[in-house]
Specification:
single chain; 192 residues; two-stranded antiparallel ribbon
Length: 192
Amino acid sequence: MDDTWTIGELADRAAAALAAGGETPANGRVRDLPNERLIRWYTTIGLVDPPLGRRGRTALYGRRHLLQLVAVKRRQAAGRSIAEIQVELAAATDESLERIADLPAATGNERERFWRERPDISHRPATVTGYDTPRPPVVQGVRLGPDVTLLLEAHDLTDADLDAIASAARPLLEELQRRGLTRSAAPPRRSQ
């Protein structure tokens, strides 16, 4: 399953395809860009096929899902109701979905380009009325020993912060070494 995506990646790809088309829904109550919750709802009501499979607990989606999602949003932008769209797209072939979705032509290796480009999420708020999760914080790692790294959701740790963390970590590192869980109990020395 080389061309599979998580639900978040599917939402980002659909948003990019819709942005390229420049269409917005005619109905102000309709979400113009799909999110994970909306994709799950579309799957429940049969507008989007169930996931192709799973990697652990992560559902995987493919090109047909992208076509279905963009086709639904294009029809909504044209003013069609969900009921009308369900009737039209029920058991639609990939060819008819391709025609309706009208995805922009991919240039180069699409998968490589996806990982090189940062998606434009400037149009999305950090949260949307409780339905989306906030953006994850940036995490810093502080190496306490050869086998132990502390992850912190902190910005700009000072030298004093790092010294305090190293000092507080000594008993933990000693205990981990006693249990045979690390190679060394001594945290790296900080130069002064």
